[in-house]
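Progress against Task 2.4 (sequence-to-structure conversion) is shown through the following example record, which the project officer requested during the mid-term review.
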Amino acid sequence: MAVPDALKVGIIEDQPKIREGLRSLIDGTEGYRCVGSFGSVEDALAKIDGELPDVLLMDIGLPGMSGIEGTRRIKKLHPGLTVLMLTVYDDDQRIFDALCAGASGYLLKKTPPARLLEGLKEAVGSGAPMSPDVARRVVSLFRQIRPPAEADYRLTPHEIRILGLLVEGHNYKTAADELRVSINTIRFHMRSIYEKLQVHSKSEAVSKALRHRIVR
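Structure tokens generated for the chain above:
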């Protein structure tokens, strides 16, 4: 019998053994429920409306449409759906493209099961879970890129700092702890950031920060 408040998870993974292993892990863990597992983005697009998940685990190397393009398409159809990449690829270009497409986090398939389950909840809770190697690459990559003039978006230095923390994988609570302010202060500044960047979610703000090189 399904638990009403269980975290609903969808899976897009083309390798049956891995897909079934993920389904077993999710269904076998209290507080989680798999509401759909698919071998391709095309299959998911045709069936996912049956019961929309809270978070979607997305592979990148898929037959047909790639997971990156799939993330872009699914986020366009369902902007509120959280997408978490789960892949073997750890190169800069795929990481960058996935985050810009709207992914809320990026985990490698070698991630331990307990960390994967934690990452699912973290992603839904406005976090940006990343494997340690991926997080280091993201921070290193974007520290090498000089941002455009801040006047483009009229972000204050404090707003840019908050945006930078989100890019590094922080959620609102850990960003508040880092800056020694209340979570309500972070929410207040995020409303201003959303308005200035003309976005409607944390993942869109992070994506725009990466695409437009706003963050140091």
